[in-house]
Specification:
3% strand; mainly alpha; globular; 2 strands; single chain
Length: 230
């Protein structure tokens, strides 16, 4: 497949998943099937995960390991966790120094336990299935192209999936977040996406990408707990 055509197809399929999730959530809100934000978040990410798995199955012709659904040794997860914590901490401190309000008002309707389960864990898994599981794997034939930063090869699939992941956070504008905060979040998400994509490509598994994502999100959870005075 032509590289430009492959990139366009992958991005459009990723956007289709996001649009279908948005339409589905709007529909269930309209009919009153689900009203609480935690329930809607669970529904959205469940649908995202299912649609991503369907795409992965179809394009891998059932060989899901090609799309990263395979295990790794425990030691292969230690460094990704550490890197996720460090980089997430750097951005948390950076946001504080810039005096950005990175708090999300809608999370006030979530308990700490719901944030842990639905945002830190479940959302991380669903988003990684879409970006590093489907999109980056779909673009894998282009991985010889890219750029080298400090001796690390960042392939085109890594960069495109990271950019897609970052721009997904434009949806925060609908939640009332400021333009500065959304821009900062997009930049941090792109960096997170590059790190997660690097480990996805290096190990051949999506698991390191998921643990990077989860550990990066720990800082948001910490901010919420401290904000509640717990």
């Amino acid at each position: 497949m032509n590289p430009l055509l492959r990139i366009s197809a992958g991005v459009l399929l990723g956007l289709l998943v996001l649009v279908l999730c948005g339409v589905a959530v709007s529909t269930i809100k309209l009919v009153g099937f689900v009203e609480s934000l935690p329930s809607m978040a669970a529904f959205t990410h469940t649908m995202m995960a299912i649609l991503s798995l369907i795409l992965m199955y179809l394009f891998s012709k059932g060989k899901m390991s090609v799309y990263g659904l395979k295990g790794v040794k425990l030691r292969d997860l230690i460094l990704p966790i550490f890197v996720g914590l460090v980089v997430g901490g750097v951005f948390a401190v950076g946001g504080t120094l810039l005096r950005l309000d990175l708090s999300l008002k809608f999370l006030e309707q979530f308990s700490v336990l719901q944030i842990v389960v639905l945002i830190c864990i479940y959302a991380s898994v669903a988003e990684e299935l879409l970006t590093r599981g489907f999109l980056q794997s779909f673009l894998a034939p282009l991985k010889t192209k890219g750029l080298t930063v400090f001796r690390f090869h960042l392939s085109m699939p890594i960069l495109i999936a990271a950019l897609f992941f970052g721009l997904m956070h434009l949806s925060l504008l609908t939640e009332g977040a400021s333009h500065q905060s959304v821009l900062f979040t997009i930049i941090s998400a792109i960096v997170l996406g590059i790190i997660a994509g690097f480990y996805r490509e290096r190990t051949g598994s999506i698991l390191p990408a998921i643990v990077v994502h989860m550990s990066f999100n720990v800082w948001g959870l910490a901010a919420r707990i401290l904000g509640d005075g717990i």
